[in-house]
Amino acid sequence: EPAPEPAAPAPTVAAPAVVTPTPAPAPPPAAPPDEPKEPEVTVATLSNATVSAVAADNAASLSKCKVDDLSGNVSVSFQIDGNGKVVKSQLASTAKSPKIAACILKAVQSWKFPRPPSGAAKGVYTISYQ
């Protein structure tokens, strides 16, 4: 009887090294689409004469701001919309009475200006007390 052939030893194959792929960094999230921007409005500047004329027309609103022994300046920077209505305002005051300054700010905010042809305008109303 022929001797059984010895089983050939199975060749040892090194298992392939398991390579864990490094995940690619996640791309930054896409920026949200820009909000539709309002068309840029050219803001004209009201002349001092226009501001003075409107102030004169509204003298009654200013006369409510009682002034006793007041010195300093009250300046109101403002912006009007296409209808001549004050939509933004900022107060700068060196007057000793914050109450007077607030009263003048409130008065200016109530004024109605001529409609600006550009759709918006800005101006400054300043009153000085000596």
Describe the structure.
It is a single chain. With 130 residues, the chain is of the alpha+beta class. The protein is 22% helix and 22% strand. It is built from three helices and four strands; from the N terminus they run βααββαβ. It has a four-stranded mixed beta sheet. The longest helix has 13 residues, at 98-110. It is globular.
Helix proportion: 10-25%
Structural class: alpha+beta
List how many beta strands DSSP finds.
4
Percent of sequence in beta strands: 15-25%
**Count of DSSP-assigned helices:** 3
Rg estimate, integer Å: 38 Å
The mean pLDDT is 80
> What distance lies between the first and last C-alpha atoms, to the nearest angstrom?
135 Å
Shape, per Cα inertia axes = globular
Order of helices and strands: EHHEEHE
Strand order of the largest sheet: 1-4-2-3
Contiguous uncertain segments of 5+ residues: none
Largest sheet: 4 strands, mixed
Summarize the structure.
Helices cover 22% and strands 22% of the residues. It is α+β, with helices and mostly antiparallel strands.
